[in-house]
Write a structure and sequence with these properties.
90 residues; mainly alpha; Methane Monooxygenase Hydroxylase, Chain G, domain 1; 3 helices; single chain
């Protein structure tokens, strides 16, 4: 347990940041799944727009240190490769 006000405040701040980071990561996962589902359904426009939205969210997460910049880059690359393969087959 914290013994001083500074430690108590740090715990409160950490809890808020943890929640904010979890929400951002969850949103990224949800959008990624939606984009992949759109690719499976054959919807070019929806897949393209969702992929773009995922990339924006990943950039923001990396900028705010919610996730490491290399992790964000790897995920962006992965979904972009999937989109390119999908568009090539259409």
């Amino acid at each position: 347990m914290p013994n001083n006000n500074q430690a108590k405040k740090r715990i409160r701040q950490d809890a808020k940041r943890n929640l904010r980071n979890r929400m951002a990561k969850s949103e990224i996962k949800t959008l990624t799944k939606s984009a992949l589902q759109a690719m499976e359904d054959g919807d070019k426009e929806k897949a393209t727009s969702l992929t773009r939205a995922v990339q924006i969210k990943l950039d923001r997460a990396a900028k705010k240190s919610t996730m490491h910049k290399n992790t964000a880059g790897r995920r962006k690359s992965s979904i972009q490769r999937r989109l390119a393969a999908f568009l090539k087959t259409q």
